[in-house]
Amino acid sequence: MTTLTWPTVSVDPTRCEWWLQGLTQEHRSPLSGAVQTQELPGAHWTARIEYHNVRDLDARTLQAFIGKMRGRAGRVYVPNFGRPAPVGVGGGAPVVAGAGQTGSTLNVSGGPLSTTGWLLAGDAIGVNSQIYMLTADATTDGSGAAALSIAPPLRSSPASLSSITLSLPTFVGMFTDDRQGWTYEPGARGFHTFIFDLTEVF
What is the pLDDT confidence band of residue 51, given thresholds at 50, 70 and 90? Predict the structure, then answer.
């Protein structure tokens, strides 16, 4: 099934909630109660995106989107509306610098030269339709390269020279359940309300 683009309507979401869902395993001693926690691969993003006071024309677009998604069968590129662009300086044409990268550091090149605060902690970037959040400020060197501290850790090694998205990065998501709909309030001048719960898939 084709991955959909997020529906275009005349209003921005009224409210967005964004969670980083870790994946851990706990081992608790039955004798001492001591706890050991192991991080597992597969941390992912979940989101709740709400539209309130939606007029009929936009409501029809969002209703059609629900139909196209076919419950949890569908996939859609979910924008990070809360981090549409870096708070840092930004700019450049960044790409992944080197193959085989793993872990919580991503080496990139193609940024502006010798730029302090190119990206700041909390900025979001996109790599291969996955969103990563910077956990520390990033400064480029004289050749435009930088080492980005990110969360969650890389789930797979991106190909060298893969593009880094700075403007409105997205992840591939699906609805968290098959029951999707909207609220219609005829007493409020015909406004509609939509609440979408989505989880990242890869």
Answer: very high
Query: What average pLDDT does the segment 17-42 reach?
Result: 91
Q: What is d(CA 8, CA 6) in angstroms, rounded to the nearest whole number? A: 6
Whole-number Å distance between alpha carbons of 36 and 28 = 6
Burial of 30 (0-12, 13-18, 19+ CB in 10 A): exposed
Mapped onto helix, strand or coil, the DSSP state of residue 147 is strand
CA distance 1 to 163: 24
Copy the structure tokens of residue 55. 């007029």
φ/ψ region of 165 (left if φ > 0, alpha if ψ in -120 to 50, else beta) reads beta
The reported pTM is: 0.90
